[in-house]
Amino acid sequence: MRRTEALAKATTLIEALPWLASFHGATVVIKYGGNAMTEEHLREKFAADVVFLRYAGLRPVIVHGGGPQINAHLDLLGIESTFTAGLRVTTPEAMRVVRMVLVGQVNRDVVGLINRHGPFAIGMSGEDAHLFTAVRKHAVVDGASVDIGQVGDIVNVEAGAVRALLEDGRIPVISSVARSEDGTVYNVNADTAAAALAVALQASKLIVLTDVEGLYRDWNPGAVDNEVIDELSATELEKLLPTLSSGMIPKMEACLTAVQGGVPQAHVLDGRVPHSVLLEIFTDKGIGTMVLPDAPAATVTAQLKGNDT
């Protein structure tokens, strides 16, 4: 029995060997959110996975949101929380809560969980060192532009501080708020922020954790065997985007932005699966949906190896 268990572990390690070699030194940006962020056992496993990546020679960067925590705090304070076109309407009063929760609570929680395993994680906000510069974003409803308050689109990324932390062997943990040039603080979608940072860092992978298995081919809410698309190109994804649910659009747009910006691979994974990040990176089949640039496989492989040097 012991020998059988040991052999199974050895097989898993050997399967991981080529991926360990390919991704050694690679920067991987992970958007952290959903149930993986709110369920205690998943939170602990995620932190352990991130530290495993660090010890395996990768350079993980975490970008997080905090929708459930923000909702809970707004409810506690009696501040109404509404959404337009899938985006949170963010009044100045709500923005103060968003900023406090993301920077002061969620960020510290993630940093603390990772640092149980060693002195690796350092928390940052998108405001720090002008990491993210944003402009006001408007929602579009029935073709008309709608003001949704202090919600921003990232227009510039100054990633020098993040690079310095990575060179020092640290794990940056970044909350998705940003400043405009006039000093206004904006709430920024964490998927969008992660994609922008992945492009700026010339990352080898963008990984977006969510609460579904991946992108479904023909989603049927009543079915138990919806088919997950394993892999698709940027062009294929562009064609699918108008048909997607409002919840999946920012995640898949983030993947599209990443691969069109030079990131060789972008993935949407089910964060409810324990160790989903490791399963994606270090196994032959992986899980979830992978988005690739419109380029021959050989070109993608060459780009990936180029980022690893």
Question: How does this structure look, described?
Answer:
With 309 residues, the protein is of the alpha/beta class. The protein contains 11 helices and 14 strands. It has an 8-stranded mixed sheet, sandwiched between helices. It starts with a helix and ends with a helix. Mean pLDDT is 88; it is low at 297-309.
Radius of gyration: 19 Å
- Extended strand count: 14
Structural class: alpha/beta
Secondary-structure element string:
HEHHEHEEHEEEHEEEHEEHHEHEH
Quaternary state of this entry equals single chain
Low-pLDDT runs of 5+ residues are 297-309
- End-to-end Cα distance: 42 Å
* CA-based shape: globular
Residue share in helices? Answer: 40-55%
Q: Give average pLDDT, whole number.
A: 88
Side by side, the strands of the main sheet go 5-8-2-1-11-13-14-12
Beta-strand residue fraction:
15-25%
Q: Major β-sheet, in short?
A: 8 strands, mixed
Count of alpha and pi helical runs: 11
